[in-house]
Design brief:
Strand order of the largest sheet: 3-4-7
Structural class: mainly alpha
Order of helices and strands: EEHHHHHHHHEEEEHHEHHEEHHHH
Largest sheet: 3 strands, antiparallel
Strand content: 5-15%
Distance between the termini: 112 Å
Helix content: 40-55%
Number of strands: 9
Length: 415
C-alpha cells in the first residue's frame, strides 16, 4: 500500500517580531490628547537604528518649523536649496513659472493647507494650452511639493496624483515654398536680411547669431565658429555658452577644465549663397566687432530683436500678397503664416540638410544637438567632413533657392 504524503502546512508570513531589530526612541512632545509623543527608529544594528531615529527627528522638527510656511516662502527656500546646480536657462524657467503661473493662485496659502483639488484646478486652467508651457508648469508643481514632502514640511504630497490637462501639441515646421520665396525676396533689400539669412543658411539659434563677432567668421575656409550665445532676458543681453554647453554643464559635475573651454563649440560651413552676404557684413569690421549689433554697436536686446523680426515679417506678408487696410497688414489671410518665428528657419535648415543627404552624424553636429553621442564626437568633425557637407549643401541650395529667386524675379518683371 502506497504511503500518502502529508500536505505541507502553509508558511506563516513573518512579522516584525520574528526579526531581531534594535529600537531607538526619543520623546518629542505631547499629542493633542495630552499623551506623550515618541518617535522611533528601527534597524538591524544600534548604529542603523540611531541613524534612522536622527533622520526621523530631523524631518519632524523641520515640519514644525515649516508648519506656517506659505507656498511663496517655501518656493524661495526651494530655489536656494535645490536649484543651485541647474543652468541659468533652467533657473529662469522655474522663476517664470512660479512668478507668473503658480504663485498668483496659491502663493499666499500655507503649504500644508494646499490640496490636490487646488493644484488640479490650477493646472486645468491651462487645458488646450501649448505643450511646452503646460509641461513646465506641471513639472514645477510636482517637484516643488515632492521636495517639501521630503523635507517633512508636509506629511503628504498633494501633487503626487496630479494629472495633466489636455494640451495642443504644436509642431514647428520648415518654411513652405511661398514663405521661403517671400523671405528670400525681402532679405535682398531689408537692412536685417543678412541676420535672417545667416540663421536660415547655418541653422544656428537666435542667440548664437547675435553673439557672432568678426573673428568667428573665416571667409577663406568658408566656416563659422559658434562658441557662445546671447541670453535675452529682461531686456538685458548676457553673453554665455551655447545652449548645448549650458545643458551639459547643468547635467554633469565631471567636466574638466580643458573640456569646459570648448564645451558645446561647433563649426558650420558657409554656403555659396551666404558668402557674398557675409563678405559685405564683415567688410571694414575689426576682429572684435559684433556682426549683428544695435545702432550703437552693442549686443542686441530682446526688444530690439523682436523689432527686427516684426519689421522683416511685415515685408514678407506684403511680398507674399497679403492685403492691407489703413496701412495694417491683414495677416489672417496672408500666404505667409504670421506664427512663423526665427526658430522655423532652424527647422528649415535641418530639413535642407536632410534633403541634401548630409550624413546624420554631421547633420546633428551642425545643428548643435546636445545628445551624448553627438557632443562626444564634436572634436571629430574634420575639415574634410565639413567640406563634403558644404558641397552637398551647395548642390541642393543652388538648385532650390537659385531657381526660386529666378522665378520670383521673372514674376516681378511680368507684373
Amino acid at each position: 500500500m502506497a504511503k500518502t504524503k502529508k500536505p505541507k502546512e502553509p508558511k506563516k508570513p513573518k512579522t516584525r517580531a520574528d526579526y531581531d531589530y534594535v529600537r531607538r526612541s526619543k520623546m518629542v512632545g505631547n499629542k493633542a490628547d495630552g499623551t506623550r509623543k515618541r518617535i522611533y527608529g528601527l534597524g538591524k544594528t544600534g548604529r542603523e537604528a540611531q541613524a534612522k531615529l536622527d533622520e526621523a527627528v530631523r524631518i519632524y522638527e523641520q515640519s514644525l518649523k515649516g508648519a506656517d510656511l506659505t507656498v511663496r516662502e517655501w518656493s524661495e527656500r526651494w530655489k536656494r536649496t535645490y536649484k543651485t546646480d541647474v543652468s541659468d536657462h533652467q533657473k529662469a524657467h522655474y522663476d517664470a513659472k512660479l512668478r507668473l503661473d503658480i504663485l498668483p493662485f496659491i502663493g499666499d496659502k500655507r503649504i500644508k493647507d494646499v490640496t490636490l483639488e487646488d493644484l488640479q484646478s490650477l493646472i486645468n486652467t491651462y487645458a488646450g494650452g501649448r505643450k511646452g508651457t503646460v509641461e513646465k508648469v506641471y513639472q514645477t508643481i510636482r517637484i516643488l511639493f515632492a521636495d517639501a514632502e521630503y523635507e517633512g514640511i508636509i506629511e503628504r504630497n498633494p501633487a503626487a496624483r496630479l494629472k495633466k490637462p489636455k494640451i495642443v501639441k504644436q509642431k514647428r515646421r520648415n518654411l513652405k515654398p511661398i514663405e521661403r520665396e517671400a523671405l528670400l525676396k525681402v532679405a535682398e533689400t531689408h537692412k536685417h536680411g543678412p541676420y535672417i539669412l545667416t540663421i536660415l543658411y547655418t541653422g544656428m539659434r537666435r542667440g548664437e547669431a547675435l553673439a557672432l563677432i568678426r573673428s568667428d567668421v573665416d571667409l577663406d575656409k568658408k566656416q563659422i565658429s559658434i562658441t557662445k550665445a546671447i541670453q535675452l532676458r529682461q531686456n538685458q543681453p548676457k553673453l554665455a555658452g551655447t545652449k548645448t554647453a549650458e545643458m551639459i554643464r547643468a547635467k554633469s559635475n565631471e567636466t574638466t577644465e580643458d573640456e569646459g573651454e570648448t564645451l558645446g563649440h561647433r563649426i558650420v560651413p558657409i554656403p555659396d549663397l551666404l558668402m557674398p552676404v557675409l563678405e559685405k557684413v564683415c567688410a571694414n569690421k575689426t576682429t572684435a566687432d559684433i556682426l549683428f549689433p544695435k545702432l550703437d554697436g552693442t549686443y542686441a536686446t530682446l526688444q530690439t530683436v523682436i523689432g527686427w523680426w516684426r519689421s522683416f515679417k511685415r515685408q514678407c506678408h506684403l511680398v507674399a500678397g497679403a492685403k492691407t487696410y489703413r496701412n495694417k497688414v491683414l495677416v489672417d489671410n496672408s500666404p505667409f503664416n504670421d506664427k512663423i518665428s526665427l526658430h522655423y528657419l532652424r527647422h528649415t535648415y535641418s530639413q535642407d540638410l536632410l534633403e541634401a543627404k548630409v550624413d546624420n552624424f554631421v547633420r546633428a553636429s551642425l545643428l548643435g544637438h546636445s545628445t551624448k553621442d553627438v557632443t562626444s564626437q564634436y572634436s571629430k568633425m574634420t575639415d574634410e567632413l565639413l567640406n563634403i557637407s558644404l558641397e552637398q549643401i551647395n548642390t541642393y541650395l543652388n538648385k532650390k533657392d537659385s531657381c526660386a529667386k529666378s522665378e520670383t524675379n521673372k514674376n516681378d518683371k511680368e507684373s
